[in-house]
């Protein structure tokens, strides 16, 4: 779960993100069943290494779930493979909260609604090809 | 295809690279034939394919005692094998909640699977692939959190109009007490979501509930109000990372028995990370319920156990409790595999009852009885208080697994009374049910089921604690069998 928790510091580094090239895929990430509370932190990765915590996400977003925002579109991503990590920051503290034994207490999910095996979903399970308009509908669990 | 046949063929293929010859096929068939020779007790670990609707049980012996009204909820694994892969350990089957309801002299039985993420995934993929206590699992497992591996198969507690299916390493799973439908995992407080809540909650005299959950050498100590809401949860550090299935409590103390079966590596399944180090001895950690930072540590010679009896403290500060103890964890490692195989010899000696005494001067001792016993249960009116009696299953012998009788041991007199059904019955844990309005310890019934191997049916028995050796005062029989379960609770 460490890499899930790592979304928060990565979000803090979001300022380093370069502007995306203005062509190719438009990725919409939606959370249709999310409760109207707090915010949803979304990070989009374009490589396995970065997805696994070795580098920054290609795109990030913070959705105002309390205000009813349940989807975000990332325009103009270069065609390629992507994977998404997201969690529901219920209390708005910007962190993925954990219980005293280190397990997440806020809902989280990965693209493809992939589930891991004793940890975050692998790149292999979460990756998807993006070209043109792509929608990822994710249930936070 | 059985693993033995598969490995035989794979081994043969690797050696010869040849296509299977008729000789190889015949040899493999012979191995299959051995595997198909199930033991006479194999019904006790059979698979159940679906929920069992409520049925009326038939009274086949005696008469329902006047005043006995309520429900015995019991939990236990009931699905081990799937075409694409199977559980290899007794503790890793899907939990199935049973409700034996006794009303107006009639008994009914229904059973329903705990509808867990584990069961849903494995049903969808047609394979048991989730790692567990002794089952390795495989790469197809979907485990985003510990409750994705929760088999909800070990025990049960009543919570209002729910029953909570308990496991060892995850949250309670709430099920409806009236129809056993699954309602969802219980989070006692948002910041404690997913914290382990073990399978042996202890009931305090005033009705509150204590429980533990373990992570290595740390434990969460749960304290629930009588209405099952959270009173408090504190994390304490432990002197070692032991495997612990049970703990016990007096009215004033929480008692953790740290056996020398210790986690040395992080590995799955759980048993592969544990090492048996009897030379380390067993430590007993006593925490003060009013201030968990007040602790005392006692040392005993090393022994293995799953189950403890309720503890009590005497005026001078002496603490006593009983344990079903054995020499080593071979049953937990190998015996429980034999049970799922449905044939073979269970290694190790059956557990015997022993009494542990923790003295005010810091000394501790352990006195073994010569009584073979497991699944100890005691009078709920005396939980955490001085008592004399331990009810328990009995009749296990070297080489043949599973109990065949019930017994009551009196720690004051040293006397044991038992009733032996014979090897055609697998006898399960029986709970202590006080007679209405009565206060004496022997004024109670024992209520528990068995698997009648001869008839292929589940039975429910009621014994009088004062005359257990006379056999059941009432026995009802269902029209089918269920596998043997683990632990139950009475809701009067």
From TrEMBL, chain A:
Q: Which Pfam families match?
A: DUF2141
Give the domain of life. Answer: Bacteria
| Entry keyword set | Signal
Q: What InterPro entries does the annotation carry?
A: DUF2141 (IPR018673)
Q: Give the residue range of the signal peptide.
A: 1-24
Entry protein name:
DUF2141 domain-containing protein
Q: Which organism is it from?
A: Brevundimonas intermedia
TrEMBL record, chain B:
A Pfam family recorded for this sequence = RPE65
Source organism: Brevundimonas intermedia
Annotated GO biological process:
carotene catabolic process
Q: What is this protein called?
A: Dioxygenase
- Keyword check for rRNA-binding: no
What residue stretch is flagged as signal peptide? 1-27
Q: Which GO molecular function, any one, fits this protein according to its record?
A: metal ion binding
Q: Which domain of life is it from?
A: Bacteria
Q: Which family does it belong to?
A: Belongs to the carotenoid oxygenase family.
Q: Which PROSITE patterns match?
A: TAT (PS51318)
| Binding positions for Fe cation per the UniProt entry | 200, 245, 307, 487
């Amino acid at each position: 779960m460490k890499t899930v928790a790592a979304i928060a510091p990565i979000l803090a580094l979001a300022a380093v993100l370069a502007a995306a090239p203005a062509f190719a895929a438009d990725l919409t990430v939606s959370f249709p069943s999310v409760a109207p509370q707090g915010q949803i932190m979304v990070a989009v990765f374009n490589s396995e290494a970065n997805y696994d915590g070795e580098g920054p996400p290609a795109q990030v977003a913070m959705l105002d779930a309390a205000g009813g925002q349940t989807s975000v579109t990332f325009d103009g991503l270069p065609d390629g493979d992507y994977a998404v990590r997201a969690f529901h920051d219920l209390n708005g503290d910007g962190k993925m909260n954990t219980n005293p034994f280190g397990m997440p207490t806020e809902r989280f999910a990965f693209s493809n609604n992939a589930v891991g095996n004793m940890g975050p979903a692998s790149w292999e399970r979460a990756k998807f090809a993006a070209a043109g308009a792509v929608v990822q509908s994710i249930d936070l669990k | 295809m059985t693993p033995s046949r598969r490995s035989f063929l794979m081994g043969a293929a690797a050696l010869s690279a040849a296509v299977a010859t008729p000789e190889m096929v015949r040899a493999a068939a012979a191995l299959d034939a051995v595997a198909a020779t199930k033991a006479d007790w194999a019904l006790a670990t059979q698979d159940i394919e679906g929920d069992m609707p409520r049925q009326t049980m038939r009274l086949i012996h005696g008469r329902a005692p006047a005043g006995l009204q309520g429900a015995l909820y019991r939990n236990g694994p009931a699905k081990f094998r799937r075409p694409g892969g199977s559980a290899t350990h007794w503790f890793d089957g899907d939990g199935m909640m049973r409700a034996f309801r006794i009303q107006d002299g009639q008994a009914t039985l229904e059973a329903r699977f705990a509808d867990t993420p584990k069961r849903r995934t494995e049903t969808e993929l047609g394979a048991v692939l989730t790692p567990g206590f002794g089952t390795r699992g495989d790469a197809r497992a979907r485990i985003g959190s510990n409750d994705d591996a929760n088999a909800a198969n070990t025990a049960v507690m009543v919570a209002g109009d729910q029953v909570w299916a308990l496991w060892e390493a995850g949250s309670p799973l709430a099920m409806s007490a009236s129809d056993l439908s699954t309602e969802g995992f219980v989070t006692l407080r948002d910041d404690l979501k997913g914290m382990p809540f073990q399978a042996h909650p202890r009931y305090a005299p005033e009705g509150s509930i204590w429980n533990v959950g373990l992570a290595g050498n740390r434990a969460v100590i749960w304290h629930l109000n009588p209405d099952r809401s959270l009173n408090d949860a504190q994390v304490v550090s432990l002197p070692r990372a032991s495997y612990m299935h049970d703990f016990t409590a007096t009215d004033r103390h929480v008692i953790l028995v740290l056996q020398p079966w210790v986690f040395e590596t992080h590995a799955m399944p759980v048993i592969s990370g544990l090492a048996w180090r009897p030379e380390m001895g067993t430590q007993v950690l006593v925490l003060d319920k009013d201030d968990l930072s007040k602790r005392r540590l006692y040392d005993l010679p090393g022994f293995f156990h799953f189950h403890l009896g309720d503890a009590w403290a005497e005026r001078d500060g002496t603490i006593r409790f009983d344990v079903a103890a054995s020499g080593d964890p071979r049953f937990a490692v190998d015996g429980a595999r034999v049970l799922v195989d449905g044939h073979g010899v269970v290694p190790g000696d059956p557990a015997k009852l022993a009494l542990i005494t923790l003295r005010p001067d810091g000394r501790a001792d352990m006195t073994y009885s010569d009584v073979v016993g497991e699944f100890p249960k005691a009078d709920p009116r005396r939980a955490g208080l001085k008592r004399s009696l331990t009810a328990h299953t009995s009749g296990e012998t070297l080489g043949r697994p599973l109990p065949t009788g019930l017994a009551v041991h009196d720690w004051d007199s040293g006397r044991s009374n038992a009733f032996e059904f014979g090897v055609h019955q697998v006898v399960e844990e029986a709970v202590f049910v006080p007679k209405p309005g009565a206060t004496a310890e022997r004024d109670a019934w024992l209520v528990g089921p068995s698997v009648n191997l001869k008839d292929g049916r589940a039975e429910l028995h009621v014994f009088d604690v004062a005359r257990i050796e006379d056999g059941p005062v009432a026995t009802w029989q269902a029209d089918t069998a269920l596998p043997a379960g683990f632990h139950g609770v009475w809701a009067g």
